[in-house]
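stage 2 :: seqdesign
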């Protein structure tokens, strides 16, 4: 039940994160000054926390959606299967978020 609620909360968080993504895209198209403003925000500590949270919400929601798809196909309803899917979505989302950020820092050299 708790993971189902978290799935819905991450869905709501994605709406707000998408506003940040739209801001970045619009700034990219608007020119160097607008882009520098977005980069200034996203490279601050609070900006990085927000983008990190957006990354986790996106990956958690994706894995939660896969879990729901498995259920829609009629699988994974046993007690042990439900527990495994729940933990897989939670641990997988955290792990994938960390991996994405490590790769992003390795490719972008922490910029």
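stage 2 :: out
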């Amino acid at each position: 039940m708790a993971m189902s609620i978290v799935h819905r909360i991450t869905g709501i968080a994605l709406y707000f994160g998408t506003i940040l993504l739209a801001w970045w895209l619009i700034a990219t198209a608007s020119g160097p000054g607008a882009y520098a403003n977005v980069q200034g925000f996203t490279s601050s500590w609070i900006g990085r926390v927000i983008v990190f949270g957006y990354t986790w919400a996106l990956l958690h929601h994706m894995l939660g959606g896969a879990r729901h798809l498995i259920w829609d196909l009629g699988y994974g309803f046993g007690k042990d299967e439900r527990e495994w899917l729940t933990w897989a979505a939670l641990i997988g989302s955290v792990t994938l978020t960390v991996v994405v950020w490590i790769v992003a820092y390795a490719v972008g050299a922490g910029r």
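stage 3 :: structure notes
- The CA atoms of residues 80 and 86 lie 10 Å apart.
- The longest helix spans residues 79-108.
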